[in-house]
Amino acid sequence: MSDNWIVANLENAFATWNDKMTEIWELVTMSPQDFKGGAIWHIVTNINGGLQAIGYGLLILFFAMSIFRSTASFRDFQRPEYALKHFIRFVAAKVAITYALDLMTVIYSICGGVVSSIAGSLGGMGSAAVTLPAAIETAVEDAGFWASIPLWLVTILGSLFITVMSFIMIMTVYGRFFRLYMYTALAPVPLSTFAGEGTSQMGKSFIKSYVGVCLEGAVIILSCLIFSAFASTSAPTLDTGITTVTMIWKYIGEVIFNMLVLVGLIKGADRIVKEMLGV
């Protein structure tokens, strides 16, 4: 870390960005069972088990509603195919509620395989790390006292913007993780809607939405890949022929633009997945 306050301020902002990028990598490639030592997953498991009783009650309700809505007369029950269709629907919904936690875990594992395959091609966040060029550090240290005054303002604004973007980005990824927990905890209730022919669409929407949340991890990893390639081919150019203030202002502006590309992609991950799945 440099002794110069201006250089140290920029290095701290870049360090925050790089730390959040590493944290994103860890979160996306981590299973919900391992997050925070499994403490949150234990709570989710207990809630899921507690809601099974409610799911069974709703199962009976939706099943009865489906029969009364689709039955013109009691003679329909004398048709084997009619009774068999409702029986299969009832059993399938019962199994889905009983093994709701396992069902959600399997879906996440399948989507996690997609994420792992994409993550394997990236290898890590080292290529997406942002560092301060030596030319910037030298120019700042050579600047006089009066010339450094506008540099303070430029670096403060730039560092603040970079730090805010870092936290927006990591909060979006944390939000995805917490949505996974919410879907898993409440799963028995929406899965009970499969018992009714008229309500099964709610269960299908729930499954599609959960798959979408799981696949957001793949979009986030792809966003990091795009950012890494974009940043490497669009590295900010340093023009040493201009004043130090202008050079640093131009450099910070280009760095922030590159970062905005990644933040925008991560923030729009849910919308991209919804458009792909038609949710």
What's the helix and strand layout?
Blueprint: H1 5-28, H2 39-50, H3 52-70, H4 80-98, H5 100-122, H6 134-142, H7 145-186, H8 188-191, H9 200-233, H10 244-267, H11 269-277
Characterize the structure shown.
The protein has 279 residues and is mainly alpha-helical. It has helices at 5-28, 39-50, 52-70, 80-98, 100-122, 134-142, 145-186, 188-191, 200-233, 244-267, 269-277.
Summarize the model shown.
By secondary structure, the chain is mostly helical. The chain has helices spanning 5-28, 39-50, 52-70, 80-98, 100-122, 134-142, 145-186, 188-191, 200-233, 244-267, 269-277.
**Which sequence of SSEs, written as H and E, runs from N to C?**
HHHHHHHHHHH
Which residue ranges are poorly predicted, with pLDDT under 50 across at least 5 consecutive positions? none
Average predicted local confidence, pLDDT? 80
What's the gyration radius in Å?
26 Å
Report the biggest beta sheet as strand number plus sense, adding barrel if it closes: none
Count of β-strands: 0
Portion in strands? under 5%
State the share of residues found in helices, binned by percent: over 70%
General form: elongated
Q: What is the first-to-last residue Cα distance?
A: 48 Å
Count of alpha and pi helical runs = 11
